[in-house]
Design goal:
Elements lengths: L3 H7 L3 E9 H4 L41 E19 L3 E17 L5 E16 L4 H12 L2 H6 L1 E6 L3 H4 L2 H26 L8 E5 L2 H4 L6 H5 L4 E4 L5 H8 L4 E18 L2 E20 L2 H11 L5 E12 L5 E11 L10 H14 L4 H11 L1
Parallel strand pairs: 2-6, 4-5, 6-7
Antiparallel strand pairs: 1-2, 2-3, 3-4, 8-9, 8-10, 10-11
Length: 374
Amino acid sequence: MPTLNEIFDKRKIILYQNESLDLDHYYQEPYQDENDEIKEMGKPFETDVSKKIRTLDLINEERTYSGFSYFMDGSRRTYKIGDMVLEGKKIYPVVVAQVRAGCTKRDQQKKLHTYGAVQKKNLLLLSDKMNEVDFQEIRQRILKTQMAKDIHLDIVKYHFEPNKDNVPVNAAIAKANSMMHDMEIDILGKMVNSGTLEPNHMLIVDGPLQFIRQDTGKPEFADMFYNVVGVSKSFDPIRQMRRRCPSARIIGTAELKGYELLFKGSRTGSYLTIEKQDDSMVPVAAWEVTTEDEQALDRYEGFPAFYYKVELTLPIKGIVSGKIRNRKCFVYIMHEDRPLGVPSDFYMDTCKEGYQDFGFDEKFLMDAIERSRK
């Protein structure tokens, strides 16, 4: 069986292979469960064997009625396995990925079991800077190998945009993430078309899936998200930030003048944002982050499709010293064409906890809800 180096060499493309670099944990991707570490790099992360055993006494516990019967989630692991040289001198990463998406169902006896088939993809991601002839030749040679057949490997392209992805490897991660969301949308579409989802049999998805995927503009796309609710996995905002960006640290608070707080999004979920408004002010907390932290936040916030970023200078009051210093900052703002809406109680509790942590007046949140009702 030919090696990757031999396959690339036949097309006169230099490939430098390296030990697998776990990109998800290297960037501390926020979508992974806490303590969900990869112990052995020589084995696939995703297998059919349960990694965690949870005992849930759903039958004997007294619980109020819930209209949620289904939960859908995706999983993505990415590894950089080498670099290839294109156009004589430009280096682009070669990345492999495992993406999965599946759904669970709670039946009338409150027992949990898999709903439908778990969708699985194993990917080799190559830069689209490679010409089409070379790409197709390499793709066909790899797919003919026994290993590719055994793991049902597919070879796909990723597109690097410097102003969006910062570094090429982020473009590969984004491509794998996009394919994971496509799989989730496919599962959701089948559930909608079969009439599975109803007001008393609703679906929970992890995060605002309807915003991460590109809206087609067609009514049927929006209709897919009736009886679907996106939720976060954790209430604790500071803990969430530290999971997404472990090296980030709180440096202080400030008043963002000339802006007002709003809740916007769509009919299936509304989230915090700010918009310009004279004679208004929004209290904010400031974190010091690294480039890697910012990249992780970009992916988490859905930048640039859902939120965009604005750079500004703020007078930050030090969390320890109390001294005020001007600092250059960036803030995420939701695209203004998103409609106003009222957030879920779950999301509102998260916002309130964040305000309590920093000593902010919760009246800002309540006023934002009133403005967003109009």
